[in-house]
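Researcher: Next entry in the queue.
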Amino acid sequence: MENPTNLLEQRRFKLAELKRLGYDPYPHKFDYSHTLGQIRTNFDAVDAAGLEEKKETVRICGRIMSLRPQGKAGFMDISDGQHRLQV
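Model: Structure for this entry, 87 residues:
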């Protein structure tokens, strides 16, 4: 596809390219350590100093609902269908 002009063609092209490179664009499994609900329960009440002291590594999964770049920093909202988390 040389110059895709409509959104559907672009998406189909990108999907085919991912498959050609050997990636599964719709994986059925993702290993995560915490749900978004567990993150909220375990860490909402902890202040920045407490988080820095604990330094717990977590893996979450969800859908990126919004992405807001802000200079050198940025924010995104992730949702798992039940909970929403800003990172």
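Model: The helical segments are 7-20, 36-43, 48-54.
Researcher: Noted, moving on.
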